[in-house]
Amino acid sequence: MPTFVVSIRLPETFDEEFISLIPQHRAFINQLLSEKIVEVYAISSDRSRGWVTMNGDDAAAVQAVVEQFPLYRYLHGVEIDELFIFDSTASRFPHISLN
After folding, report:
1. 81: three-class secondary structure by DSSP
2. Which residues sit opposite 82 in a β-bridge?
């Protein structure tokens, strides 16, 4: 299954409605992580940008999932790029210790 990176821009300020949706959004992301749809979820330290690495059949399927994010209507400039290579320490087998 192809892997995609989704780049998002968050609003400059967070109103009360945005803040109230964060727990629901995090629960949804956690569900997608447990289902292996989302591989990585990251937000920049200044909370202006985010990156989500996702598995999907194609960009349209990934877009359909992103549109289900509870915070979707607040996201600006959503970009979806299919990755040619995606390698991480998390996807490797753990080192075996003979102790």
Report:
1. strand
2. 4
| 9-46: pLDDT as tens digits | 999 999 999 999 999 999 999 999 999 999 999 999 99
Q: What is the DSSP string of 63-78?
A: HHHHTTSTTGGG-EEE
Rounded to the nearest angstrom, the gap between the alpha carbon of residue 57 and the centroid of all alpha carbons in its chain is: 16
Give the dihedral of Cα atoms 22, 60, 1, 74; nearest 10 deg.
-10
Q: Please state, as a whole number, how many other Cβ atoms lie within 10 Å of the Cβ of residue 22.
A: 12
What would the DSSP string read from start to end of 13-27?
S--HHHHHHHHHHHH
Q: Which two tokens stand for residue 88?
A: 């991480």
The strand pairing partners of 51, in sequence order, are 7, 42
Helices (runs of H) and strands (runs of E) counted in the chain: 2, 4
